[in-house]
Amino acid sequence: MTATVQVSPRTALVPVHVAWGAAAGLAGGAGMGIWMSVSRPMMDTAMITMVAGLLGSTNAVAGWLIHLSIALLASITFGALLGQFARRLVPAAVLGLLYGAVWWVVGALWIMPANMGMPVFAWNDVTRSSLGAHLVFGLLAGLTFVAIAKVGGKRTGRAAG
Hints:
- The protein is mainly α and 161 residues long.
- 73% of the residues lie in helices and 0% in strands.
- It is elongated.
- It starts with 8 loop residues before the first helix and ends in a 5-residue tail after the last helix.
- Residues 3-7 have low confidence and may be disordered.
């Protein structure tokens, strides 16, 4: 006698959306990292080296590793929480931009400055440039997510919309 276990399609969506989110986050994180590598809003210091300061470093490679780790975590969360709504182009782009803005408020305006002994929720050259970087992250992550969802949906037999 064999037993058959049926799993609803919704059960399998979360892990798939998490994986798609992880891949999308690396794309968004790469775009944001490039922005932060070339942006020097404060005393000719690249923003990516400021990220390295979270662990007491000024090394750009350390900044990239920290940044991509955070981007990966953020985008896995995006996939898990919003992936089911980001399977079409416009919703994915809008959700990505909004998600990037949320991470800007939480990460760049609050957590990072608090950890570095800087004023939180300040509006200055650094936070302005950081807003642009976070919007780039969100947009690229959202667009990459929907592209992966379309390809992944075809391979798994799920409709992308």
